[in-house]
Amino acid sequence: MSLSRRDLLALGAGGATAAYAGSAWADETPLRDLAKAKGVYFGSAVGAGPKGALTGSFEDPKYREILARECGVLVPENELKWYVVRARGPQAFDFERADRIAAFAKENGQALRGHTLLWHHPQWFPEWTKTYDFGARPAEAAARMVTEHIQALCGRYPQMISWDVVNETVDPKDGSIRSTFLSDAMGKEQVLDLAFQVARQAAPKARLVYNDYMSQEVGNEQHRHGVLKLLEGFKRRGAPVDALGVQSHIGAENADSFTGFGKPQSKEWTAFLNEVTGMGYDLLVTEFDVHDKGLPAAFGPRDAEVAAYAKAFLDQMLSYRQTKEVLAWGMVDKYSWLQNQWYRQDKLPKRPTLYDDDYKPKPLREAVAAAFRAAPAR
Fold first, then answer.
1. Helix (H) / strand (E) containing 68
2. Rounded percentage of the chain residues whose pLDDT exceeds 90
3. CB neighbours of residue 322 within 10 Å
4. Over the chain, what is the mean pLDDT?
């Protein structure tokens, strides 16, 4: 059953969540199956951090039940980032958390997706990198560190169907490439190209992705321009990049100001996607959620607006046959990263994911299902 914006808003006025829980318009088909029927993977991030923490959703058995039922692919949320996997120093790797997610995926017949081999942003490297000395030949030493890191991760998880090889290297303020301790040693374009080249050798069957949070809303113009420039550079230099990951943290602006939804630039966003696919890149929806900061407090109207906004976005993304994966950034509201920042003015919890805190599916879940049903086959 496909829901229009009018349907969703009408349900919102009368309690959309209750309507879904009563299965009046629920689709029992798992999202993984709806996606697979169209040649798309559906899955979610999951965090194996401390039990009870936002980053510890994997420790919740009810959450794991949702993952097992709905997801065809799992994404370790933080477990493969440098600040986790190499927290103890340049010579030490810690795969314990990621290994637990990998084992669960295998048990449940799920694929794995890698995030991320190189988060090229100075804020997200471990503390020891701030004073690390590459020695007399810094470019060679930095290249060796990048190579060893990527080979270690790809070698341990050869089952990955795709990797975010480079994440968020474009500065949204001016579209430039960020500087890190690695690029300071060997050059910005050089470290990015090397990451993809090594990843291709180490994970020859995986889709190699550049991942970033440029979006359709007003205020992302410079960011989108910088991403296009980066992708053009990859193509010109022959870097083996297969796809652009569109992080898809849609909805309200991620800011402390009290905002409703942003203002989509439909014409400009379509032109951006056309340019990306016109260069031969695939697309992925990589970190999907809907920020509901500034929306009504009542769950019914709030959930309905979230669902309608998401349905329109996913319909457009899935209209491109180049879109091969849709990955939620969490499946249950209370574990969403958005609960911990940019608080609602009314101090109420946010409802950005497909399931509520009682593990019940919400209108957003139906919007995702409807988008898959309406999508063309790949």
1. helix 61-70
2. 89
3. 16
4. 93
Residue 82 has pLDDT above 90, yes or no: yes
353: DSSP letter: S
Give the Cα separation of 304 and 8 in Å (integer). Answer: 5
- 171's CB contacts (< 8 A; 6+ apart) are 177, 178, 226
Rg (CA), the chain: 20
Domain that holds residue 42: 5-374
Contacts of 130 (CB under 8 A, 6+ apart): 181
H and E: helices and strands count for the chain: 13, 9
Q: What is the pTM of this model?
A: 0.93
- Residue 27 has a pLDDT of 58
Quote the CA–CA distance of 214 and 264 in Å, as a whole number.
12
- pLDDT at site 255: 87
- pLDDT by residue (tens digit) across 239-293? 999 999 999 999 998 888 888 888 899 999 999 999 999 999 999 999 999 999 9
Q: What number is the average pLDDT over the span 302-321?
A: 98
Using a 10 angstrom Cβ sphere, with 0-12 exposed, 13-18 middle and 19 or more buried, the burial of residue 247 is: buried
Residue with tokens 């340019």: 275
What CATH number is associated with residue 279? 3.20.20.80
Q: How many domains does the chain have?
A: 1
Three-state secondary-structure class, residue 73: strand
Q: Measure the N-to-C terminal CA separation of the chain; round to a whole number of Å.
A: 21
The DSSP line for 225-256 is HHHHHHHHHHHHHT----EEEE--EEEB-SSS
**Distance of alpha carbon 174 from its chain centroid, rounded?**
23
